[in-house]
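Follow-up to my earlier ticket, as requested here are the two runs.
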Amino acid sequence: MRIHTSFMWVFFVASILFAECSPAAESPPQIPQEMPVLKLSLKDAIEAALDKNPNVRLYKERIEAARGVSRTQLGALLPNLGSTAKYNNQTFFLGTIGGAPVRTQPFDITDARGSLSQSLFSWSLIERWRASRAALAVSEGEADTTKNDTMATVALNYMEVLRNYETAAARTANVELYKELVSFIKSRQSGGMATGLDTARLETQLENERQRLELAKSDIERTKLILINALGINFDLNLVLTDELKVPQEPVPTQDSAMEVALNKRPEMKAQEQRVRVSTLTLSSIKGERLPSLQAQGDYGLIGNQINNSLSTYNVGLTLSIPIFDGGQREGRIGESRRQLLQEEIKMNLVSRQITMELREALVTLTSAKEQYRIAKEGLKAAMTEVQLARERFRLLSSNSLELSNALFSLVRAKDNIIDGLFRANASRVNLARAMGQVEELR
């Protein structure tokens, strides 16, 4: 477990107040050695999510299904070839002769034939194929949206684990500090310079910190499980995170530049544009059913009563279909499709507003989190000074330990504020990357 360098400088600047915690004390509960160890950086976690996460894999399959639909629609525009071979042994009824029915003697007929059909013009079929291509693009956009959201979720889960590591480290340092001060108070009590209440007060705070330390350790394991589940990997492993929480150094982008990037890169926007295109082409396809369509058909084959006694036959023709009246069904479908197009155009506005809101919220939160962290560092320095002065006052003036106890409580809270500010800054960085469609670029 590693604490950020700024933490180490602040937490241990006064050796009289803090005892350096050992790695063994910071480590989560021991995991059986036979379990494989997986060392994971933030970048590795994001890349692993794209390969293993079940939601991402599901959308990959949906893309393939959409690709199959597109091939089907294209097939209606391409030549269709077929062949048949037929053999019959049959008789014919010749009628009634002399009052008795008469038929022919059995004879053989063989017929082998190849057929070809080709759509020469059908605006409806052309637009259906184009709509299927746009639907494929929609599936790809939805898959990219799932990838972006999954990567952001994994990154946030990664930050949660790091946050709990930092919390456990701070709790460990607090426990060591309380132990030292309890020992100090007890030595003062034995010399008649402190009371049992002073000792009891600090011992109570010590036990509270021990309980909070155990909670932090359990939170490490709990959030690790959440991260493993988001990654879609095997639960039976020892997950070791190689990154640490650190203050984002990148400058906060301007709202205009961030919005330009988001509108160009957010997959939701691209997917919705394709949905509008699908609805537009579907409407055009239904309207195209009003137009005549032309199809060529033909077949060629050999027919006879034996293979070596057969003649070639063929059939070639054009079919012109002219729609006249279908009871108003087509007009009903045109009206339905037109309303569907209008709905998708309205959704485009909703998607744009959602992206704008998420982006602005991420910018505000990131700016605020950085300022919160700066203030928390100043607060930690002040809390350390307060503890040092309270302890010196207790040593010199033999006052009760209430001032010291309050100072220690302020120090604990200041540490929590530092960790909270650091986590919020990193979480806001992830949310901003998601809002701009750039989660893959996180390091």
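Run two:
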Amino acid sequence: MSDRSDAASGRAAGEPAPGIAPSSPTVDGFPRRLHGRTPIPPAALRLSVLVPVYNERDTIELIVDQVNAVPVPKEILCVDDGSTDGTRAVLARLEAEGRVHRVILHAQNRGKGAAIRTALAASTGSVVIVQDADLEYDPADWPTLLAPLVDGRADAVFGSRFLGGPHRVLYFWHSVGNKLLTLLSNMCTDLNLTDMETCYKAIRGDLARSLVLTADRFGFEPEVTARLAQAGARIYEVPITYSGRTYAEGKKIGWKDGLAALWHIARFNAVNPMRGSHVARP
């Protein structure tokens, strides 16, 4: 309701209408929608877990078990991006056992962004989230990530590694690079994120599937951030835990990807295919 309407009715700006308390339950026990909120009813919550996989034979089964342990309705969509280390055999077994709902194979390695796009196109959930297969991010953080989406405060939630959550101490210059890329992204999007490059981005499913995404490798992070900003999405940030890998343990992103991210930030914010679109809310 506008400030003018509030004044005309004798209520202060933002004050709820008489007899409708913000926390009053509906007949099904779910809280009424507050002004500006679009909650997801519990019965409608279904999480699409997008798992891009490339040569993760030693960790994929464990991360799938961790994902399945989170008590939320979900579908697990694994996209093998041309693995050559035996990962595909593990995924085939997990799918046959019903521990993964669908496995999609790329004939050759196309990059993380391409794998995420493939999984996103196959998703059906009311919320989507990317889950790396390398054990750096813990699905136990999902309740914190999902809360602003479920209660209707957000259209997308970023899990920040720099908001005080427990984390493994690793590379100083890697963290400096992340913060620099986040700063440059923020300057272009006018957001105040602390961790644009985070893997953990939970997004309302209908919104995520409407975004125009093209990046194949690690350009996915600056691109999806730019597209969310261009769509006018309400974005929240929450602290998460982080257990980063060393390069000896299989970490794949390097300084060349950091340089490429500079170009991605510039081009994805210069070109706006979302122009004229806006997040639709009931």
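The only thing I checked on run two: The radius of gyration is 20 Å. Let me know what else you need.
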